[in-house]
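Z., the sequence and structure:
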Amino acid sequence: YGGKKKLFKIEKKRKIKLGDHVNTSFLSFPNHIGTHIDFPYHFVESGKTLNDYPAGFWTFNKVGFINSTFDNLKKNIIPIDKEIEFLIVKTGFGSKRSTTDYWKKQPIIKAATATLLKKKFKNLKVLGFDMISLTSQLNKAEGRNAHLNFLKENDILIIEDMKLDNLGKCPSRVIISPLQIDHI
């Protein structure tokens, strides 16, 4: 996020070719790299963390999927089943993943989007999309408000930076496997 490079580091700890019995590595990376989940704690000190979600929470059999920009979301969500728990929005912006536009010029997602989605989809637990963040560099204040509206006010988790290039239709099930790290 923000164009920083080489944030993911792999340090080889043991190597069979050097006489060790196993190959092991030490991984180091920030929590805002690649596809990741924003929990309420990300923006609210007393917000929920991974520990507050039981294992069964992470399997979704009622999934919605649309190809849409966030500007056109209101009209494009009309045909989606109102009972969904997980909504995937393929904006097409993921095609800019290897450019600076991906993090510098991402479209703005308005805070009111969370209220719109929760009003239509009462059971919505997660929104995932193919942009680097809910916060655009073009309007950080709106992004902060959007995070608060999703995570705190409407209790909708955010999955940012999904690679959706090859997803052409709605999956029948989504299983999320977050790294089990206490209080993240």
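DSSP finds four helices and nine strands in the chain. The mean pLDDT is 94.

Let me know what you think.
H.
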